[in-house]
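Query structure, 223 tokens:
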């Protein structure tokens, strides 16, 4: 099939290519829970090898920069992040897998030394509950279903897919294309409405920040 020959596995990769964005991340934004994904459309067996210190650092940095802007329009506000562990019980200190202690925890320690408010890795079976109760502003999940199951459980149809790191605003629905019900009048527009509203809010935030930056440059130049 045609799509199997394409180098992109989804809109996120394609839009990064078209806009020349060097690093992007898929995020799901909802009122009760906000989740950023470390890896996206890859086989589960490949996830451990893809979770490199460089990738984790990039996603942490991107999340800490972009999410505060989405929350209140300010890029200098602190965002409370949590990193979900890869293995059960976040590896149980190496008993149930070594990736959490060998790769994830050092990445968190390095980020904290840079002033980023992040903690973890925490067991995946509790960290999303803690975030939904307000302890964290967002959770960084290791793989697709780890992050999307709790989001869709709490806010299916009300969550929004947002691409972090693009020079443009990009939002989308929290579900697939549902070609099986196309043209039958059965589709639920709720997530599309939420995606449109969030895109409008993000566009206003960008416009405000751009205007503020222009005003500051004008003042500094004496204009």
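Result returned for the query:
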């Amino acid at each position: 099939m045609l799509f199997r020959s394409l180098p992109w596995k989804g809109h996120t990769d394609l839009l990064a290519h078209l806009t020349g964005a060097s690093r992007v991340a898929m995020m799901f934004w909802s009122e009760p829970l906000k989740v950023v994904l470390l890896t996206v459309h890859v086989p589960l067996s490949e996830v451990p090898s893809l979770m490199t210190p460089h990738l984790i650092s990039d996603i942490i940095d991107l999340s800490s920069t972009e999410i505060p802007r989405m929350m209140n329009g300010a890029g200098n506000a602190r965002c409370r992040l949590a990193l979900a562990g890869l293995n059960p019980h976040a590896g149980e200190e190496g008993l149930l897998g070594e990736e959490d202690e060998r790769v994830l925890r050092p990445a968190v320690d390095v980020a904290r030394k840079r002033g980023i408010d992040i903690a973890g890795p925490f067991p995946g079976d509790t960290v999303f509950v803690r975030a939904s109760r307000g302890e964290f502003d967002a959770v960084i999940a290791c793989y697709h279903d780890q992050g999307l199951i709790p989001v869709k459980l709490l806010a299916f149809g009300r969550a929004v897919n947002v691409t972090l790191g693009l020079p443009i605003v990009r939002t989308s629905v929290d579900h697939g294309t549902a070609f099986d019900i196309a043209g039958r009048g059965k589709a639920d527009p709720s997530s599309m409405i939420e995606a449109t509203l969030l895109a409008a809010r993000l566009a206003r935030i960008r416009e405000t920040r751009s205007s503020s930056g222009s005003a500051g440059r004008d003042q500094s130049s004496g204009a």
